[in-house]
Design goal:
The chain has about 120 residues and is mainly alpha-helical. It is built from four helices and two strands. It is rod-shaped and about 85 Å long.
Length: about 120
């Protein structure tokens, strides 16, 4: 018996659906959880910047942020908005989540910032 094009497409689609469904149900019992949930908790922030001259990105005003290299009025505003929407920064590297701050900008200011509770501090 010879199959026409429509029958071949139908059989191929059905076989792909069976393989996908089997893979889905077999993979569910593998015990591997690939989803990650990050919980943020309320953290007491220090009132002022540290005495070592670094700017605390969790408490700095727009004007204080503008004293950092490559941070002008627009980026300072974005940092404050990001902080207000997402809560405190947990590490200085999180600044790269702010639109407009890439690796090169972050590298230029990384030694001048702190978030007030760096693991190294």
């Amino acid at each position: 018996m010879k199959l026409n094009l429509t029958e071949k497409i139908f059989i191929s689609s059905a076989a792909a659906a069976v393989v996908f469904t089997a893979g889905y149900f077999l993979g569910r019992g593998s015990g591997r959880d690939i989803s990650v949930t990050v919980e943020r908790s309320v953290v007491e922030l220090p009132e002022a910047s540290p005495g070592d001259g670094r700017v605390n990105i969790n408490t700095a005003s727009r004007a204080e942020l503008m004293t950092l290299p490559n941070i002008g009025e627009v980026l300072a505003e974005r940092i404050v908005e990001y902080r207000e929407e997402n809560g405190p920064f947990f590490c200085p590297e999180e600044l790269m989540n702010v639109p407009g701050i890439g690796e090169s900008v972050f590298d230029s200011l990384s030694g001048d910032v702190t978030c007030g509770f760096d693991p190294e501090e």
